[in-house]
Amino acid sequence: MRDFLKECLQGESGFTELRFHKKEARSLSAEKGRIEKSSIKKRQGIGVRVLYNGTWGFSSTGEITRTSVKNAIESAKNSARLSSGVRKDKIADLPKGNFAIGNFPGKGIEEIRSHSIEEKIQLVLKTADRALKNSSLLNSVACGYSEVFEEKAIVTTDGADCFFSLVRPEFRINAIAAKNNELQTGSESIGVTGGWDCLFRDRNPDELGTIAVKTAVDLLDSALPVGGKSTVILAPSIVGLLVHEAIGHTVEADFVLSGSVAAGKIGKRVGSDLVTLCDSGISEFYEGAGGSLPVDDEGIITQNTTIIQNGILKSYLHNRETAARFGVAPTGSARAWEYSDVPLIRMRNTYLMPGKSTLDEMIAETKDGYLLEGPKNGQADSTGEFMFAVQKAYKIENGKITKLVKGVTVSGIAFDVMNDVDMVSKEFKWDLGSGHCGKGQPAKVDAGGPYIRTKVKLGGARE
């Protein structure tokens, strides 16, 4: 495919980028002893971008022939010509980056393919059935499995020339328990970039089902917390959600140019000395983070970018265009969901660096607070203000966990929360690899980190 794309670029002047993308996705879900949903989707094509008179032009084709690609190139050029007259901030040039050259085959692809569809159907059916037997209080248990295989080839007139492949499997289970007209939910999900062993490395399907059921059942007998500003220990899943939604998006350079809270803060303190925040295309610490990819959709190697170092904002996330505007190197953060999508600045794997404490030490040194685990949903905006719902919250009293509480929400300003961090654990976990991030188009990402102790506004009952 690389040779074919290079053949299509012969004779082209100026900047032209060709991106071949093949995607095959399968999903299954089971509930009440039967398969509720099953789908297979396949798509492939070539996206074309040109830079003409300081303006982008984009086109795409689902027909993999030299004629169709050449026609798409001309269509992209015409789009650029038509729009160049109304664009004020012209792109003078694109900076060179660490271009990918060669093939980058992913791990786990053949392993996932070696498991038959029948085996995957039995996985979701049997896991749901066994989990349902764990408690008489259960109303239902739903279980799902999905996998996405991808191949990409990216060739540009100024140096990128690469091919890579990967597979991203996911597994999730959701339990609903009922008692005295009250319903509670427990859910567990995992998503990785890699094979079957990577997916179930920490916990097997039945263990995930047992945890989901226990959460739903235990919440039935829990009380509401006392609301107000509280000391909290955030688990890696909550840390991941916080740094992705409330910080990560604010440092994407296109959002910065639109006036996000991070604008103008390079070199300024935005967190305590214990806070170092990174975003990486590589799965740091151990393999399998859900947003891993070797090359971005501009053909740039996906380096590890330190966003915050010891509390000081050091970098934004850039594509080639914003890198030129800020006078820096691109960070390998341009990503497109389909061949027919324009690459946008997106996160990959976003995380806080681990520290020197242990979780046990953090709990023991907390007189009055909460341990929060499992994000449910939430929102954040360009000001860094956030509100998240939490699945499980454990009350900490005099250095010991005493009880489970329910209905917990946390809110605050992300950089304020980072400034209040006073303990960071040695333990580290990727814990946000399932599902998708949205920003005009979906993207597979992951996020996580250590446990951190800080302060947030806790939603709950009035004291």
Overall pLDDT confidence = 95
Number of helices: 11
* Overall shape: globular
Terminal CA distance = 65 Å
Cα-atom Rg, whole angstroms?
A: 24 Å
Percent helix, as a range, is 10-25%
- Total beta strands: 24
Instruction: Please give the domain count.
Output: 2
Task: Determine the structural class based on helices, strands and strand pairing.
Answer: alpha+beta
Strand content: 35-45%
* Uncertain ranges: none
Major sheet details: 7 strands, mixed
Helix-strand blueprint:
Blueprint lengths: L1 H8 L5 E17 L2 E19 L2 E7 L4 H19 L16 E4 L4 H6 L2 H16 L5 E19 L4 E19 L2 E10 L4 H4 L5 H16 L7 E7 L1 H13 L4 H5 L19 E4 L23 E6 L2 E2 L6 H7 L7 E2 L8 E2 L3 E4 L6 H6 L3 E13 L4 E13 L2 E6 L2 E6 H6 L3 E2 L4 E2 L6 E2 L3 E2 L2 E4 L2 E8 L4
Helix pairs in contact: 4-6
Give a brief rundown of this model:
Helix content is 23%, strand content 39%.
Descriptors:
PmbA/TldD fold, seven-stranded mixed beta sheet, 24 strands, 39% strand, globular
